[in-house]
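Session log. Operator J.P. requested a structure for one protein chain; no other inputs attached. Running the standard single-chain path with token output.
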Amino acid sequence: MVGDAGAARKGRSHVSHDAGEDHRDLGRERVRAREGASVSAPLPSAVAHALAAPELRPYLGHVDAQELRDAAARARDIGVGVDEVLVALGALDENAATHLLARDLGISVAAPSLPDLPDDPAMAEAVLRTGTLVLGTGRPHFVMAARGRIVWRLRRALKRDAGLASRVELITPAVLARRIGSVCGPRFAAAATERLALSDPLKSASTLRPARIVGLGAAAIGLPLALLLALAPDMGLLAVQAALSLVFLAWIALRLAGCLYGPPEEPVPVLDARSMPVYSLLVPLYDEAASVPRLVDALSALDYPPEKLDIKLVVEADDHATRAAIAALELPPHMAEVVIAPVGPRTKPKALEAALPFARGSIVAIYDAEDLPEPDQLRRAVATFHAGGAKVGCVQARLCIDNGGDGWISAQFAAEYAGQFDVLLPALSALGLPIPLGGTSNHFRRRVLDQVGGWDPYNVTEDADLGIRLARAGWQTRVISSTTFEEAPVTRRAWVGQRTRWLKGWAQTLLVHGRRPRALMRDLGPGGTLALMLLTAGPYAAALVHPLCLALFIADIVRGVAGLPCTHMAEVVTSALTYTTLVAGYAGAAATMTVGLGRRGMRPGWRTIVGIPFYWLLLSVAAWRAVIELIRRPYHWQKTEHGAAHRGGGGGLRSSASAPPQPRPEGVSS
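Structure written below.
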């Protein structure tokens, strides 16, 4: 359900670049007169005539005249209603604006306890999207959450049909959303759980049987391999290592190829404020009470017209601490809480899917609790959608770790993220290959989300899976240089738990999309299919082959045969693969880290480079845990701990790959 946390509060309100100064000027002169008060000074006739316009008339005597004129000018500039500007400004709260408008139109205000809400989730979502609830049969009765342009159409309709006024009631948008959420929330959650599984069951992880698949794989591959190892141990070992090493080396080659691609400089977007769409941000929160104040500050700093922003803080019904932290804040009018009913799997994608009906924007973006996005990110995403044309369905911003100085784990994580988001993903985007999305800062066309079935509530890396489904449906994903700063885990336990979930989810994604190879090849083509195999199987191959290669290398050293001539061809090939995998793996990781950090004006410290083998051993621990969890608890969501880092908010970090160099932060590199 949606909380009306922003109603009757002035709150924060960050503004668009084009009209920001106007909005700040309005903010300096707040409400001169409230309900029942009158404007104190007589107005010049020209001003009085301008203020007599129908869209301004409801608020005369309740808002300062100059403020009202300025609000009307801003409304024209950005293409919204005067009422929306006044609410975003804090000159009126939503409830007061609704009552004043109803009085001016000569209609009633509906009671919050709405009867006869639709049982069907699709119908309830339609009410939220249109802001109109139709009651009764024959001559229907309408309850409308009218704002902006809809008010203009309603005013014209009332003029044409004098009897319509008796059949229309207004309601505050937040009140309508809250009532629908309280009544239909469990249905939305149930529908979110079933949506993809019903529309395309073979693309849902809910229809996987991981234990059966692993069992069949063990029977089909393991038994012949065990027989081979028993009869010819050297050849069996060679077969295992060759298969894993080839996948791993191909994955390294793909990452090294990304090092050769230099992302072009992106121009600063110049956008007409009137053409900027309504933007919805979904921010799933669970056990994140400590992160809420900083998150709200970061989202309030976004450089986008607040009248066109629709931010939903998505929380679980039983997460009382996070809900209390939200309630304690004065949220801006464009922020609200969406409460998710405890139905279905307790996963982030289920929460997102259940909250999607409450989003009113034509573009939907996802942020996490610890995210600090650059203020211009929404503008850059809109500009990329416009420049890319109708086939661009998603825009992915780059993620950057800003607490790399907290310790060895966070430094490794920061370097790894630089390689992923500043090296690999821009290259994949330029080549038109499938992109496994990051779990945050991805921006979607709303209609595209609906077309591909939204998020899979049963896939624990819903981002990677959704990126592949977008590519299979023919939609392109573009990577932009705008950055979102994130927090890395600071303890080995937290890191292993997070990486276990990621690896388990990549396995789910590979199994889901690989169970119909012909359809996959048809959708993605040979290059896209190969890239998918490498991007999902590659991390597993890297994690699984590393201990084997390292053990063989150490065994050769202990036996004193490292570097000596080999006596059998199998031994030659095995040694070659072992040393090549180790050298190429370590060198490839170091190169990718160095290039990625270099694009942010940094370099990896010597501890980071020397620590790569040990970091990979931790990856192996997570990989084997992921295999076990895939069988025992395929849908278990291991939540990442936040709030333990010492974050700088990106200070000293280069904002994007196309920005001028800045000094590197201490602790991240040396």
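Operator note: DSSP finds 22 helices and 13 strands in the chain.
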